[in-house]
Amino acid sequence: NQDNGAPVLNQQVNDEITLTGPDQPAGKILRQYWMPAALSDELVGKRPVVPVTLMGERLVLFRDQGGALGLIARHCPHRGADLCYGRLEDNGLRCPFHGWHFDVTGQCVEQPAEPEGSRLHENIRATSYPVVEKNGIIWAYMGVGEPPPFQNLDCFRAPDSHVFAFKGLWQCNWLQALEVGIDPAHASFLHRFLQDEDPSEGYGKQFRDTADFTDIPMTQVLREFPRPEIQVEETDFGMRLISLRDLKNGQTHVRITNQVFPCAITIPMSNEMTITQWHVPVDDHNCYWYSMFTSFGKPVDKAKMREQRLEEHRLPDYAPLKNRANNYGYDPDEQDTLTYTGMGLDINVHDQWAVESMGAIQDRRDEHLGKSDIGIVTYRRMLRKAIAAAAEDKSLRATDAELAQMSGPRSIDVIVDSDGWQDAWVPREDQRRAACSWPATI
What we know:
Elements: H1 11-18, H2 25-30, E1 34-39, E2 49-54, E3 57-63, E4 69-73, E5 87-89, E6 92-94, E7 101-102, E8 108-110, E9 128-129, E10 131-134, E11 137-141, E12 152-153, H3 154-157, E13 163-170, H4 174-181, H5 218-224, E14 229-234, E15 238-246, E16 251-260, E17 264-268, E18 273-283, E19 286-295, H6 302-310, E20 313-314, E21 319-320, H7 332-337, H8 347-356, H9 374-391, H10 400-405, E22 407-408, E23 412-417, H11 421-434
């Protein structure tokens, strides 16, 4: 056992919580929930057809001429040709090899090379999954039975004008990508800025703002107070992480972040914006992060935020331009004077380096967790509990009614008096919601 009671994981357990094929324990859990499959932006243009690999399954996503979305197996069930090159016609996708035609449900509706009157096509149906479009992301449900309702999260309730969606590719397992987001201590080091920028120039960039209701730059708070007390509260949506930094002047910086089970986080980005981010397996060695930036103030400047992020990513796969091949842009001179990592000002690059440097799948047999890793320990216990229940043909997922009622979650950076901080941060967060231009009450 380690300092916080976390067991050292053996290889069997590490496989159990990382592998996501349809027959793998973690894969079965993730398939109980809606998962991001693509950005809506990817289907903009003359030919709305894109390849999607999700939890190891090779699929093709398309929008037919009537606007309906389909997500079906990428390889034609006739001879296995790649349907990503299919012809969009007749409200479906037609394989160029022999003309077999599929609708958005995967049903084969025509086999033009077969004899006149053949009904063989009626028995041919490609694997397909339900898809729904919400605020810039197309979501897929890959589980058994009817899809659950979406949780009543802020990023889903906000109007499209107040949400910006983007994604990025990381070359690592989904779990280590998620775990960096439930590790509040790392921000004081990995994202340490040795110089403070003008917060007014930081629109759309995390940690550039001031702490709520103060003039102290967040970069200064994180840099000068690197030893937070971290508390965890299990909630209906997953868990809340409370990071407390004693400012040694009778005040405490309170940072509220959240883990939304099974693979999302919600964190404060600025005084008026939060980020909800899913960590979605492409396969066991690669993942996408999908972020929904939700504004509680003015509508988001989508053009500016997209431009900022496209400066750091390439299309069409949204892979980061800084990566292992170019040492993540590492500059030792910058590391001396500007950033803790020497890898530029984009904190996504910092996170990317950290999780990719662990290897494609982290070997958790060699890790040593401390008290500051309480979020990671708690999450792994939650995941293994869900896996154990699924092995007994049970589910710990909330009921449809409970999922529909899950709201928020609250997420904020605020400085309050140390005495009574527990009762102070919620009213501060309520003030932001009360001033919101869309109904943000929870």
